């Protein structure tokens, strides 16, 4: 992360008068960051940046996307006691949030058993790029980072322009590096969009049967091979396997960012055995 971002996060957490950490002597200590549950680890780079900013020396045997078991040590730390306490919550917040997203993403990837699992823009303001990194660590696709990444024609665009005019307008703005994606809610709209040459069709809140019917017709009309098909809306960990069998290429799920649990991770300062 940028130094300005890091210092903004630190300022938010420490405030102007850090009485909680300054009450102890700044002696040199050793500490461990421990996973309290099984999951996929993410946020190692960000946590390392935080520790090093406070002149703490972190070591780890893990890489982004690795499986971590309950009670495994993620980081060994060596540094000042005050510094470790200052860095603790911020580093654990990054690790817990990003690892929770990575863990849920991996669950979706495994249950879908074929199609890619992608995120959405349903992210925490100011924290999107880190949440997207969590998706990548879990084996998913980040989808768009922002509105400039692709031309996406959604239901409200269609409400204003209509499907055909919206696609024609998008084509005037597109380039060879920028794809056009359109949301559809019916089989007829999917076929019409495909005939107009869009790059990606998103089946939005369509049932498994509706998607299968649409793909069958696209195949029959020779339109399937040149288009990416995506399913989105109403997809959960319980039914993602059914959507995975429809023949779509991608399944996008907002829940992997907006509804993922944090991975439980803690930090403990080790007793100084030389004093015993």
Low-confidence stretches: none
Number of strands: 12
Strand order of the largest sheet: 6-11-10-9-8-7
Which shape, going by the Cα principal axes? elongated
* Mean pLDDT score: 92
The level of helicity is: 40-55%
How many alpha or pi helices? 11
The CATH class of the largest domain, by name, is Alpha Beta
Q: CATH architecture of the largest domain, please? A: Alpha-Beta Barrel
CATH superfamily of the largest domain: Aldolase class I
Q: What is the CATH topology descriptor of the largest domain?
A: TIM Barrel
Radius of gyration using CA atoms only: 23 Å
Order of helices and strands: HHEEHEEEHEHEHHEHEHEHEHE
Instruction: Please indicate the count of domains.
Output: 2
Summarize the biggest pleated sheet.
Answer: 6 strands, parallel
Distance between the termini: 41 Å
How are the SSEs ordered, and which strands pair?
Elements: H1 3-14, H2 19-22, E1 28-35, E2 39-40, H3 44-53, E3 57-59, E4 67-68, E5 73-80, H4 81-112, E6 116-118, H5 128-137, E7 151-153, H6 155-161, H7 163-173, E8 180-184, H8 187-195, E9 200-204, H9 208-220, E10 228-232, H10 240-244, E11 250-252, H11 255-258, E12 265-269
Parallel strand pairs: 6-11, 7-8, 8-9, 9-10, 10-11
Antiparallel strand pairs: 1-5, 1-12, 2-4, 3-5
């Amino acid at each position: 992360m940028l130094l300005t971002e890091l210092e903004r996060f630190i300022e938010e957490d420490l405030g102007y008068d850090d009485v909680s950490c300054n009450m102890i002597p700044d002696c040199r200590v050793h500490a461990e960051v421990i996973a309290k549950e099984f999951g996929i680890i993410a946020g190692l780079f960000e946590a390392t940046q935080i520790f090093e900013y406070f002149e703490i020396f972190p070591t780890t045997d893990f890489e982004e996307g690795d499986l971590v078991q309950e009670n495994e040590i993620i980081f060994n730390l060596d540094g000042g006691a005050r510094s470790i306490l200052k860095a603790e919550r911020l580093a654990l917040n990054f690790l817990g949030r990003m690892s929770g997203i990575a863990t849920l993403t991996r669950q979706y990837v495994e249950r879908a058993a074929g199609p890619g699992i992608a995120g959405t823009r349903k992210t925490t303001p100011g924290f999107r790029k880190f949440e997207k990194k969590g998706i990548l660590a879990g084996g998913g696709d980040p989808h768009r980072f922002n509105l400039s990444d692709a031309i996406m024609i959604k239901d409200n665009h269609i409400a204003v322009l209509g499907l055909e005019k919206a696609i024609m307008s998008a084509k005037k703005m597109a380039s060879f590096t920028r794809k056009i994606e359109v949301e559809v809610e019916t089989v007829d709209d999917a076929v019409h969009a495909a005939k107009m040459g869009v790059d990606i069709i998103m089946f939005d809140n369509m049932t498994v049967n509706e998607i299968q019917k649409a793909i069958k017709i696209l195949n029959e009309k020779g339109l399937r091979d040149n288009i990416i098909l995506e399913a989105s809306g109403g997809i959960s960990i319980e039914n993602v396997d059914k959507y995975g069998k429809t023949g779509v290429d991608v399944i996008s799920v907002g829940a992997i960012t907006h509804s993922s649990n944090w991975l439980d991770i803690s930090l403990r300062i080790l007793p100084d055995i030389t004093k015993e």
